[in-house]
Amino acid sequence: MRGWLALILLGMACVTQAADRNDIPSCYHFLKQDAVRPDDSGRELVIIIDQTVKVPLSLKESVWQHVLRYVQPGDRVVLYQFSALLQDNYLKRVYDGKLEALFTDRKARNNMGMESLKKLDACLLQQKQYFSQGIGKLMAASFAADSDSVAKSEIFGSLKRIAEDLKSDPAREKSVLLVSDMLENSDFVSFYRNNRIRSIVAEKEMAKVTEQNLIADFNGAKVYVAGAGLIDTAAKNNYRSGKVMQQLETFWQRYFEASHAELISFGAPELTVEIK
Questions:
Q1: Residue 249, burial from CB neighbour count under 10 angstroms (0-12, 13-18, 19+)
Q2: Rounded to the nearest 5 degrees, what angle is found at the Cα of 239, between the Cα atoms of 233 and 245?
Q3: Residue ranges of the domains in the chain?
Q4: Which residues have C-beta within 8 Å of that of residue 103, sequence separation ≥ 6?
Q5: Which of the residues in the chain have pLDDT under 50?
């Protein structure tokens, strides 16, 4: 990366307005071209990582590749990690970045000086690389380590808090990538009995979560799950029956429907469709 471009992308965080968080420094702002900045795409990708689940490396890489294939110039990307409420593990908004749209307005380009145009084009092209490296490192750090062991899993409470946090985001189109085994184990509800996944009847479980005010509001988002039913390699009972997984998926379909979202794909554990 050329020296001046590195300065633009890596050393200009101080010029970003504190009231509008953006973990990706703005090329237009740094080069004093705010007046020609195109509108954002209106798309937002929300990545949510469950830190109570040990995810194999192959699945981590698959999730990252899904993110890179989806994200385009003009998109906003938000990354959350959640766990049971412990000293070092809790719900965090780890990343919030907006990639800027490319400068394609022909009339505006013709009115800009050649050197300024050259710098702006180069900076915008490098933004995706800057984003890819940054989000990759943060996602890797958000997954549970092999040495971690968290017995509780507060999925419902975390999803509700995340949905509330997202209400202020202006995106017209939201996609949620949720990396979790989708197995709640809290004082509200537990999907386990005698260290095994118990039978899950969607209607009964929905009644429980509704009664305890655990339904979220995702405002029409599309939801993609990766990691459903993941089994810790150290677990004694390392089998998930097809019936249990079917029951689990049916429940979560009902849950997200009640939470004003659409469950597009339930990766058990691999996500086999592209995020749209």
A1: buried
A2: 115
A3: 27-266
A4: 33, 36, 38, 109, 117, 120, 121, 124
A5: 1, 13-19, 86-87
pTM higher than 0.70 for the full model?
A: yes
What does the alpha-carbon distance between residue 133 and residue 190 come to, in Å, rounded to a whole number? 37
Please enumerate in sequence order all residues whose Cβ is within 8 A of that of 32, keeping only pairs 6 or more positions apart, or say none: none
Beta bridge partners of 153: 185
Q: State the burial class of residue 102 (Cβ atoms within 10 Å of its Cβ: 0-12, 13-18, 19+).
A: middle
pLDDT digits (tens, 9 = 90+) for 39-83: 999 999 999 999 989 999 999 999 999 999 999 999 999 999 998
Sign of CA dihedral 112, 115, 119, 121: positive
CATH 3.30.1490 applies to domain 27-266? no
**Residues 157-196: b if buried by 16+ CB within 10 A, e if exposed:** bbbbebbeebeeeebeebbbbbbbbbbbbbebeebeeeee
pLDDT score, position 168: 87
**Model pLDDT, residue 8:** 59
In this structure, how many other beta carbons lie within 10 angstroms of the beta carbon of residue 210? 12
Distances (CA, A) of 9 to 22, 43, 58, 73, 164: 12, 22, 30, 15, 31
Cis amide linkage into residue 269, ω under 30° from 0? yes
